[in-house]
Design a protein that fits this description.
8-stranded parallel β-barrel; about 325 residues; alpha/beta; single chain
Length: about 325
């Protein structure tokens, strides 16, 4: 078995009682921590109109994280491309790659990363036609590599043009899986909130894959929630913050990340519990031995080349410890 890489997905959670400034400071500290632990990349997610997420200006946060670290790759997981012009993203990531050469990843998604009203405020239109996404991706790639166009480009991305910035397609369904395969690009699947679609999407990606100048063989990274405590009981306790976050979204009550609680049954209804456990069904929660056992099964089922770990934990020190446990487990698995 080839070595399986492991990376970090950070939503820069804003804690109840905390501020976005503290959240971004925590992200810098976590990035420095996981860089020492051997993580491959540190990605930040674009979300909007969410009081509990501080990474809405994703490109700016990427720059801050890259400046605070030395070797770890830093990027987007992802940039929601329909929210932006392809030229703006080419310029932003061209600038990032110019500032931090050889360390920037550009992960692209086609969802709004928010509600429809906020999407309209971002885009100045309510039009959210996903069918435009392939054209946007091609336009973006052409700004980086004008030779893809048969005609000279009337508009050029500076910085950006001529730079080799890895582009990934992200998805929670088969749409981006198939497109990534057809384009011969690496694919990252959001199993951390869409577990039921994981295996079908990965299979579709493999079946659709066509070798390209970027990749000769398929490359799959899978997002997974992992919350590792010192014991199974602590892991389940820490995970209650993640459950409360998703419960708030289910109830259309977005807020900051809440501290953990002892008994979720006092908070959710039986139906909400069932729905959330289904949505978060691929989550790996527990002590180190449980995490190792479940992660080995997960890797075997998905055949992932890489995992990207979302560790939504309220206590920052416990969050750092969880990523330490995951790194230790991955080193054992790769041994």
């Amino acid at each position: 078995m080839s070595t399986i890489k492991y990376s970090v997905l950070d939503l820069a959670p804003v804690l109840e009682g905390g501020t976005p400034s503290e959240s971004l400071a925590n992200s810098r500290d976590l990035a420095k921590h996981v860089e020492k632990l051997g993580y491959t990349r540190y990605w930040l997610a674009e979300h909007h109109n969410m009081p509990g997420i501080a990474s809405s200006a994703t490109s700016i946060v990427i720059s801050d994280i890259a400046r605070a670290t030395n070797t770890i790759r830093v990027g987007s997981g992802g940039i929601m491309l329909p929210n932006h012009s392809s030229l703006v993203i080419a310029e932003q990531f061209g600038t990032l790659e110019t500032l931090y050469p050889g360390r920037i990843d550009l992960g692209l998604g086609r969802a709004p990363g928010t509600d429809q009203l906020t999407a309209a405020a971002l885009r100045r239109t309510r039009r959210t036609d996903a069918e435009d996404f392939p054209q946007q991706v091609e336009e973006l790639r052409t700004y980086f590599d004008p030779s893809r166009s048969e005609q000279p480009l009337p508009v050029r991305a500076v910085p950006g043009e001529g730079l080799n910035i890895p582009i990934w397609l992200l998805g929670s369904s088969g749409y981006s899986a198939q497109l990534a395969g057809q384009l011969g690009l690496p694919f990252s699947f959001a199993s951390h909130f869409s577990p039921d679609n994981t295996l079908p999407a990965i299979d579709l990606y493999h079946r659709s894959f066509k070798p390209s100048d970027v990749l000769k063989e398929p490359y799959v990274m899978v997002g997974v929630n992992i919350i590792a405590g010192e014991t199974d009981e602590e892991g389940q306790y820490l995970a209650s913050s993640l459950y409360q976050t998703f419960l708030g979204m289910m109830r259309n009550k977005r807020g900051k990340m809440l501290p953990p609680i002892e008994n979720m049954d006092e908070v959710w209804t039986p139906i909400e519990k069932q729905l959330l456990q289904q949505q978060l069904g691929s989550s790996i929660i527990g002590g180190p031995e449980t995490v190792k056992e479940k992660l080995e099964i997960f890797l075997g089922e998905t055949g992932a080349n890489e995992i990207i770990v979302n560790g939504q934990i309220y206590d920052h020190d416990k969050r750092k410890a969880s990523y330490q446990h995951v790194a230790d487990v991955m080193k054992e698995i790769n041994a």
